[in-house]
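Researcher: Let's do a round of design. I'm pasting the structure tokens now; please hold your answer until I've finished.
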């Protein structure tokens, strides 16, 4: 075993399965670019058989992120497939044009899954593994196999299934704790048992994929790595089904911070963790809780007097890592309305953003407007401007004007002007319980789409009364077409996230709501099935 742990990121597949985390193809492409810059070894780009959009997203990521140029290092691009020929064909179609393609196929091996979900016997599962892994191997030399719900599977049966997969051509064996059931000592013992009892295991990389239902995903992943696994399957911010997956940032920083004990490395550039975390949060509309390890707003904040006293004397008293290690900048810029494009571009470069001329011009215009409102511009302000302006995809409706009247006297009223897909402006005024509610109702009246606000979160980016406000929202569409399966009346409705930032929190709220509305309209095919491309400004 070597001492390098391969990081397999499944934000675009398992992470996107979080309620409300649906991303467009263009958004997935931007996240994939960010993951490649981060140094991720494998990007699971999606489940190509799930839909034509998923297939197209995987194909574009293969072409634009997974294609090596001039010998540059690029990640392996992976597509997920059930042990079904049509799924495997779709996965291969999606990844085949990348420089390093991989097919990841899976089937359940726990008794409860085989009996109730698959309705298959053990021998039938063994036959399916043998035939479908071999089928995938005939298409692609790099094949990953996962026995779903391995954490609750009979170990002896698991050894047999993995042996069959190896002989059929699997090069990576992923051991998933699919429902987050195992304890760290149990999961570590499971990996040790597989290494000891599976013939030919030395030919393969062992991977671990843990869920967080009991809050043990990172602990289980580290236990599996310490027992011999050399690939960790993770997501940015730990998003994923139910309680989520193992968080990439937690595993990477645990290995880095406790290197003397673990003696293991990754290829991740940890200084980009905070930036990628913010990008994924903005695109999915899923906020990062303040006390989230590594990337939460409070991860490097100290309020207790005893802690502050220790920090003033030596920051190592209460910080086991410096914020700069994960890309959290504490710098306050001496930039204002008299600063020029060059100074702004230099600072953005220092923050890790490579912007082309068009992008810097757009950012500069927003920067000037903000500088007229704020005396001091911080790095956090600049990153919020990038997120709000440059990471936003091209949308169907754009906010062109907003005016509100509210207070203790009279009825809260909002007048909204939107530019529609035909380029024409529409204006509507509405009354609500408050200015945000009124603004949302005015937007609904113009867009004419049925939606329900599921979540609304607002917070200040920096300190001070002149701080920008960031808003994230999630909405559910009341229309049947937004269901994953329109024929299933009992299936929960899909939700869509949106993000907005502005010094005026009502404006930020309207931007975030409209961003979510646009995603919903695209998903429903209200304005055609062709993907509306993102503004590709971040290189």
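Researcher: That's everything. Go ahead.
Model: Designed sequence:
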């Amino acid at each position: 075993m070597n001492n390098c742990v391969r990081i397999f990121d499944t934000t675009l597949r398992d992470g996107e399965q979080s309620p409300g985390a649906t991303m467009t193809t263009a958004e997935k492409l931007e996240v994939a670019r960010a993951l490649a810059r981060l140094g991720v070894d494998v990007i699971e780009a999606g489940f190509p058989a799930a839909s034509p959009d998923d297939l197209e997203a995987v194909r574009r990521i293969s072409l634009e992120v997974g294609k090596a140029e001039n010998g540059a290092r690029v990640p392996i691009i992976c597509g997920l497939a059930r042990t079904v020929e049509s799924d495997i064909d779709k996965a291969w179609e999606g990844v085949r044009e990348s420089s390093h393609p991989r097919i990841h196929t899976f089937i359940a091996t726990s008794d409860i899954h085989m009996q109730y979900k698959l309705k298959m016997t053990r021998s039938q599962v063994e036959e399916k593994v043998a035939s479908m892994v071999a089928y995938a191997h005939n298409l692609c030399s790099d094949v990953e196999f996962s026995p779903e719900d391995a954490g609750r599977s009979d170990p002896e049966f698991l050894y047999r299934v993995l042996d069959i997969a190896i002989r059929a051509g699997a090069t990576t064996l992923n051991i998933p704790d699919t429902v987050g059931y195992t304890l760290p000592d149990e999961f570590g013992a499971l990996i040790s048992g597989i290494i000891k009892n599976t013939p030919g295991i030395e030919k393969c990389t062992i991977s671990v994929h843990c869920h967080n239902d009991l809050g043990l995903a990172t602990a289980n992943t580290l236990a599996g790595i310490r027992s011999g696994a050399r690939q960790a399957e993770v997501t940015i911010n730990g998003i994923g089904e139910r309680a989520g997956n193992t968080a990439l940032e937690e595993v990477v920083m645990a290995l880095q911070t406790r290197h003397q004990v673990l003696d293991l490395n990754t290829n991740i550039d940890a200084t980009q963790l905070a930036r990628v975390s913010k990008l994924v949060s903005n695109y999915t509309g899923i906020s990062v809780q303040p006390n989230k390890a590594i990337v939460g707003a409070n991860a490097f904040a100290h309020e207790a007097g005893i802690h502050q006293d220790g920090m003033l004397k030596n920051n190592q008293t209460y910080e086991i890592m410096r914020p700069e290690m994960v890309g959290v900048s504490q710098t306050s810029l001496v930039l204002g309305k008299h600063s020029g494009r060059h100074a702004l571009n230099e600072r953005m470069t220092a923050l890790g953003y490579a912007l082309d001329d068009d992008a810097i011009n757009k950012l500069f215009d927003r920067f000037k407007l903000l500088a007229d409102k704020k005396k001091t511009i911080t790095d956090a302000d600049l990153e919020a401007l990038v997120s709000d302006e440059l990471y936003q995809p091209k949308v169907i409706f754009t906010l062109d004007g907003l005016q509100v009247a509210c207070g203790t006297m009279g009825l809260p009223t909002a007048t909204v002007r939107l530019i529609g897909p035909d380029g024409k402006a529409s204006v509507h005024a509405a009354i609500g319980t408050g200015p945000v509610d009124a603004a949302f109702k005015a937007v609904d009246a113009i867009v004419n789409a049925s939606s329900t606000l599921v979540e609304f979160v607002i917070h200040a980016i920096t300190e001070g009364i002149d701080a920008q406000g960031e808003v994230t929202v999630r909405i559910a569409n009341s229309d049947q077409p937004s269901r994953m399966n329109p024929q299933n009346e009992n299936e929960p409705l899909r939700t869509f996230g949106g993000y907005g930032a502005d010094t005026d929190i009502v404006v930020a709220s309207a931007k975030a709501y409209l961003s979510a509305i646009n995603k919903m309209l695209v998903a429903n095919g209200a304005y055609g099935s062709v993907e509306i491309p993102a503004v590709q400004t971040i290189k």
